[in-house]
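Feature request, filed as a ticket because there's no other form

It would be nice if the structure record came with a short human-readable summary line next to the tokens. Right now we just get the raw output. Example of a typical job, pasted below so the devs can see what we mean:
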Amino acid sequence: MIYIQVEHTGKGFVTHADREKFYFKGFPSNVWAVGEEGHLWVSQSVQNDNGRVLSGSEAQRVINEFTLSDTTISEISPIYPTYAAGVTTGSVDLFASVQSGSTGVTIE
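Raw output as currently delivered:
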């Protein structure tokens, strides 16, 4: 698994074709878990969008440091879906987590 921190740039950030090729899951703080098959997408994100590759422990630390005092509900997407082979396989309901005051998110 590759972890990257990069801002979601909107439509085309990850295409349908990308999602059919590799695992992709978003987490709070613009951290994304990408399957090994997505290494070219990661390289392009680092080069074009100022992304940075993180180790698993760094990614978990960044997610853990996510605080509500730094982010308003309107600044985050309420659902971070998991994509594997083009199929939505699950999601983290971040909106509910924000309302309860804890993200409680653990990366795989």
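Something like this underneath would help us a lot:
The chain has four helices and six strands.
Residues 2-100 form one domain.
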